[in-house]
Amino acid sequence: MEASKTKILAMFAALGALVALGIYTLLFFEVKKTNEAVSTLQNQLDIEVRQDQRLRSMKELLADLDEELKKIDTYFIASDGVVNFLEELESFGRISSASVEVNSVSVEDGEGTASLPYNRLRIEFVSEGSWSALMRLISLLETFPAGITMHRSQLERLPNSVLWQGHISFTVLTLK
Amino acid sequence: MDRNAIKEFVSHSLPFFSTGKGSGRLNAHFHWKLLFGGFLTLNILILLLSLYLFLQINEGDIFLVEQNQEIRIETIDRNMLNETIAFFESKNTRFESNKLLPLEIPDPSR
After folding, report:
1. Could you give the ipTM of this predicted complex?
2. Has residue A168 got a pLDDT over 90?
3. Which residues of chain A neighbour B63 with C-beta distances below 8 Å?
4. With respect to CATH, is domain A82-175 assigned 3.30.70.60?
5. Interatomic CA distance for residues A121 and A82, integer angstroms
6. pTM score, whole prediction
7. Number of Cβ pairs < 8 A linking chain A and chain B
8. How do residues B40-57 score in pLDDT, each as one tens digit?
9. Which residues 85-144 of A have a C-beta within 8 angstroms of B?
10. pLDDT of residue B30
11. Where are the domains of chain A?
């Protein structure tokens, strides 16, 4: 009888220990899960705070660089300034005494330009005039304060004439 | 396997549960001490682990999720901006002087 009672007590103790272990494990994982959720939230909060700080400093920087940014904008062709630029190109012809006949104007679709704040406008034109007139025209175009890249500049002397003909193509950066 | 055979098996393989014959009963005191010591050690370990967990959670140093999201905000390089402006300004100066002074490049066909 005594031995049987002891055994029952031992069984209950072991069972109780097992149940306690189970509850402990369950609570451990619950605490772990909650703590990880808190940590994730804390990380998100940290990211938000840092992002906010950076945006604030970016705002301050933009305000600080306002003058410079306005200045640099003047060196880009405005999105509605293409016609003015073409008129400017024709005025280069008048200055250099060479004719300017624009053949094509197109927007270049380069890779990765979608995310950029500017477009590349490709302009092709034919010009006729004396050698020095064409040289002056090209020089004016090359030194014009805008994002101009010359692509083609083919000069040929016209038959039985002192005049030259130039096939010129270039790209200029225009704001979107 | 009948009931007596099971009893015999348990008595031989697990002396602590023996029904009274042999060394199991004689060592009951020792077994209780063993059990007590074992559970005491386990409880101390669990207590220490719990204390460690509590302190770590309290400090916020445990079960942390790694932050792998980077914040990327494009910023403006002031030096590069100034260099670009200086480049365009020098281009403008050359443009203005080109407008005033024609180039003297001899015609290669003559």
Report:
1. 0.71
2. yes
3. 31-32, 35-36, 39
4. yes
5. 9
6. 0.62
7. 96
8. 998 899 899 989 988 988
9. 95-96, 130-132, 135-136, 139-140, 143-144
10. 86
11. 2-64, 82-175
